[in-house]
Amino acid sequence: MHKFLIDAQEFLPILMQGVWLTIVLTIGSLFLSTVLGLVWALMRVSGIGVLDKGATLFVNFIRGIPIIVQLFYIYFVLPDMGITLSAMQAAIIGLGIAYSAYHSENFRAGIEAIDHGQIEAAQSIGMGWWMIMRRVILPQAIRIILPPYGNIMIMMLKDSSQASTITVAELAMQGKLIASSTFKNTSVFTMVAIMYLCMSLPLMALVRWMEKRFSAGNKP
What we know:
Elements: H1 2-44, H2 49-63, H3 67-77, H4 87-112, H5 116-124, H6 129-159, H7 171-182, H8 185-213
């Protein structure tokens, strides 16, 4: 234990740099995936065949390809097409696109869970599709969407470690670099695991709160 504490004191400042990049990467990809996921979901419930089929095809395509392959494609293949991105940009875009497919399914399920009679009532008073979504459907769908949204957020935090495969110096990469240069694998990766856990626990608590707060039968 004493040796571990000494190693922790030495390596913690470096690992904290990785923690910061992990947080930035998670927030950036979460924002992108949320926006894109909402777009795909709205396309799928729009009632317009072309938009519905296009979004369905895209979502199924993205879900069928491993995240790491998507990251490789964006970072290593796009430059051959004249599109060059930094490792962090590629990681945010890759994770954002990959997780937008999962957000899309979550958002679509929340929207379709709302009683269709409310849509008909809104249409009867002259409300258009977009106004119905904005004022009637989406505010209620949030109750259903938020708990699984929190779970996806935790998954995204952990999957941010895959960005290390394209040289993003986030927490996992920093740990790997330190371990390879010092050979103190046990101390380093124990610290990495603890730091991921420390970032995940507040999110887990938030998810549990949301599940209770927005569970079926509770008023928001």
